[in-house]
Design a protein that fits this description.
The complex is a heterodimer of chains A (261) and B (269). With 261 residues, chain A is an alpha/beta fold. Helices cover 39% and strands 17% of the residues of chain A. Chain A has an 8-stranded parallel β-sheet, sandwiched between helices. The longest helix of chain A is centred in the C-terminal third of the chain and has 15 residues, at 240-254. Chain A starts with a strand and ends in a 7-residue tail after the last helix. Chain B has an 8-stranded parallel β-sheet with strand order 1-2-3-4-5-6-7-8. In chain B, α1 packs across α10 (234-242). Chain B is globular and about 60 Å long. Chain B starts with 5 loop residues before the first helix and ends in a 5-residue tail after the last helix. The chains are: A alpha/beta (261), B alpha/beta (269). At the A-B interface, α1, α8, α9 and α10 of A face α1, α8, α9 and α10 of B.
Amino acid sequence: MNPLIVDAHAHLGAWPRFSVVDGSPDAALQLMDYLGISHTIVSHHLGLVGMLSEAERLSREAFERSQGRILSYLVFDPHRAQESLDIIVRCCGEPFFAGVKLHPALHCCPADDVRYAPVWELADERKLVVLIHTWDRSIENPVQNYSFPDLLEGFIKATSGATVLLGHAGGHYDGFLAAARLAAAYPNVYLDLTGDDFARGRVEYFVQHVSSSRVLFGSDMPWIDPRFPLGEVLAADITYADRAAILGENAVRIFSLEDNK
Amino acid sequence: MMPVSVTDIKQRFNEARAAVGFFDSNVWIGPYQGPTFLRAETIDELLAVLKGACIEEALVSHFASVNYDPWEGNSLLLDALEGRDGLWGAIVLTPEGPRGCRVGEYLQSALIRKARAVRMFPRSHSFSIQEWHSGPVLRLLEQHELPLILHHSELSWSEIRSVCLGHPTLPVIVEGTGKKILYNNRIFCRLLEDCANLHLELHNLVNGLGIEDIVERFGPERLVYGSYAPVRQPGAAQMAVAYSRLSDDAKRQIAGDNLRRLLSKVVST
C-alpha cells in the first residue's frame, strides 16, 4: 500500500474511563483500509498501566497480524524503569518496534524528572523516536501540568540524537504555543495532531511558525476517531505539499516506512 | 476507501461534504472569551467560514448571551440574523425573562425574529434546571417544540435525564463543549436508551468508531452535526459524518436532516 497516510499516534486495547467500542488490531485495520491509512504506530494500553511484557507480546502480534502495518511504541514507565529499559533495549531494531512512549501525566511523574534520564540517554545513543504525551496546564486536571511541553526542554537540549514527537502538540492553546516554540527551536522535535481540540487555524499556525515538515497526522484511536483529525488536516488552509507532508511523508521518513512496506 | 493522491483526497473530501447537506447546529458570533488562532466575530466573517466548509444552513448563538447578558446578546444575535437566508437563532434563556417581561412574551417575540432553538447555561448563569426553578420555562419550550441545547459541562447527566423524562416532547440536544464528552459514553448511551427525545451533537463526540456504534444501537436520528465554529474547525466532524461507514441516507440525516426535521416542528405562535 502506498504510504500516503500514516497515523503516528494511536493505541490498542481497552481503557477503564470509557467504553472502548473496539480496541483490537482487526478493528484498526478495517478502519485503516477504509480511510487509506497505510501504517499506524500504536502503544498498547497495557504498557501504560504497568503490564510491559504483555504489551510487548501484543505489539508483536499486532505487527504480525497486520503484515507490518501496525508498529508499536513501547512504554518507558518511570516507576518500572529497569524493566522498561530491558524490554526496550531487547526490542531495539526489531521490525515491530517504532520507538518509546512516555506519559508523564498518567505516570504522575513530571516530564523533567530525573527518572526519565536513562531512557533519554538510550534514545540519544540509539537514535530512537520518543513520543511524549504533552498537554496544557489544567486547573481541573492538575496532573496534566506534568506534561506541559516546556518541561521537556532540558532533555531535548541534551539529546539531539533522538527524534522527539510532542504528542497532542501540547493539548490546548497555551500548550500548542509552547510545543510550537520547542519545535521551532530544535530541529529534532515534531508535533502530532492528536487530541480533541481541533482549534480552527492551529494547523495553519504550526505550518507557518514551525514547518509542515515537522507536523504529523495522528488519531489517538480508539480514544479519538481518525476521521476527526483527518478532516481537520483536509480542511486546513495549507498547500497540497504541506498536507502531503503532514499526512504521511514525514512519518514515512521518521519511521523508515519505505523499507517496511 | 480513500483515493491515492493528496490532491484527490482533498477534492473527494470537498465533494463528500457538499453532497450530504450540512446544517450546523452549533455556530457562534461575537467575541469568544478564550484564546484562538483565528477570529471570526461578525455575521459576515462567520458566513465566510461556513461557506468555506460547504455548510448550507446554521443555528447561530451570540457569545455575549453567555458571557455578558442573555437578553443583550440575544438582541444582538437576532439583529444580525435579519435578512440572512439559511441562518436561524439559538437564543439563550434563564428561568426568568428579562426584567419587566414575562419569559413567554419574550419567547414569542424572539420566535417572530427567527429564533428556532434555546440554549440554557445552569452553571454559568447560576440557576437550577430542576422543576422548582426551570419547570415553567421548560414547559413553554415543550409547548413550542423548541429544541433545548445544553452543554454537558453545565449540568449533571442526572439533571439531563430529568429534563428529558419530565418533558418528553421537548427535543434536547447535548453538546460536548467545555470538557471531554468521550469519557461519558457509558452514561449517554444509557440515556439514549431511556430518553427518546435526547440527541447528541458531534463536534466533540470523538470516540473511535463512536458514530457507527451509536447509529447501530439507536439509529441515525439521535445525532446532530455541529461544529462549534468559528472556534473549532468544522471539517473535523464533517469528515466523521461524510466518511462514516453508514448509508447515504443516514449520513444526510446526521449532517442536517435531523436538525431540519426538529426545526420544522417548532410552533412559532
